[in-house]
Write a structure and sequence with these properties.
Layout lengths: L1 H10 L10 E6 L2 H11 L3 E5 L3 E5 L5 E6 L8 E3 L2 E3 L2 E4 L3 H10 L8 E3 L2 E7 L5 E6 L3
Parallel strand pairs: 1-4, 7-10
Antiparallel strand pairs: 2-3, 3-4, 5-6, 8-9, 9-10
GO molecular function, one term: dioxygenase activity
Keywords: Dioxygenase, Lyase, Oxidoreductase
Protein name: Catechol 2,3-dioxygenase-like lactoylglutathione lyase family enzyme
Length: about 140
């Protein structure tokens, strides 16, 4: 690990990446995806065509919804358990949890720790997300 840190320090002067502009997730139905993310979660639609849509929330990178006929999701396994690739920050974790539960969305219980509160949920396409609220 030490050599990797030294390499990082040596290349730190050549900073090309400014930040994350967007991330992409697979969906099998673009209209349903746009309704879910814009109509239910409050994102703003930036673009919609036959192959993809992108939506924006009030903070963070754009979320591209990419149409696929493959049985896939942007969720991976850690020790056999599903793990999310994207985390959302919220101001009212209790309210958002209740809202998602009323939509019959698969949600985990809220966990409260010293660094904040969090839970996970799945969209209708099998993509798993983390929800985080910093301590108030």
């Amino acid at each position: 690990m030490q050599s990797m840190n030294n390499q990082h320090l040596q290349t730190a002067n050549n900073v090309y990446i400014e930040g994350i502009q967007y991330t992409e997730i697979p969906v099998f139905d673009l209209e349903k995806a746009v309704d879910w993310y814009c109509g239910k979660l409050g994102a703003k639609l930036g673009l919609l065509n036959d192959e993809l849509a992108f939506v924006d929330f009030s903070m963070g990178p754009s979320l591209f919804l990419v149409k696929t006929n493959d049985n896939t999701a942007a969720t991976f396994k850690v020790n056999g358990q599903d793990h999310y690739t994207i985390g959302f920050r919220v101001k009212d974790i209790q309210g958002f949890h209740k809202f998602l539960s009323q939509l019959d969305t698969k949600v985990s219980p809220i966990v409260v720790e010293g660094h904040g509160s969090f839970f996970t949920f799945y969209d209708p396409f099998g993509n798993m997300f983390d929800v985080f609220q910093p301590p108030q």
